């Protein structure tokens, strides 16, 4: 017995909603990244010697070329360049600030090489080391690192999820959603690596960008782990407006959970409700929902969109 067809109006509404979600520009995100880069550049010019700055620039160039090779599938060649950058930093006679600054990025790069080489435990260890280097940058010299630390914690959770450690990942990812939305330090998933001082504040654009990264990692979770994510998200107090970040996180998680259980009507309803209010956007998460809409729906629903049945 075939499943009842889905309401065409619901399918159309979901498609239009996701199209709107993908229509926002990325200028705000680029601006936020440029602002952080400018702060780091100013610190390097102010605090480091000329020779230290030139050395860090050389290590950065080698590291980035290695990462580009890894992304292109040339993992051995890319890993060799990352190892060369590590050897250069290890031999360098530089001050502590210069070393920790360079090492915070190099540890993350090594984590990516481990990840691409199917060494998940080593990848997570390198990312945790990078998180701790960022903590030292903040506590000792006041660098803005909160966004980087959340990014690294998200990547570590994604690595664990892709290594089938779904329960552990779901706990961390739910904590990160709560941290991004509220800045409540109770939700930082690595209390042993907490600041001795205090975090730098996250701007609104940074929060939406980080949520997008976290939701991308959530999409890697097994269906049975998704319920643990939504259960850990806070409920909206009576009489208060729903928190837009938490609302989208819950909506996205319930959408992919519904899709996994083949409750396509619920999936479409969540897709319809998902787009964030302008000017905010979640492009990675939106693309993921579009991919599920295009590839995982019954053949009768593809025909509604004009695609041939399969």
Automatic annotation (TrEMBL):
Protein name: Uncharacterized protein
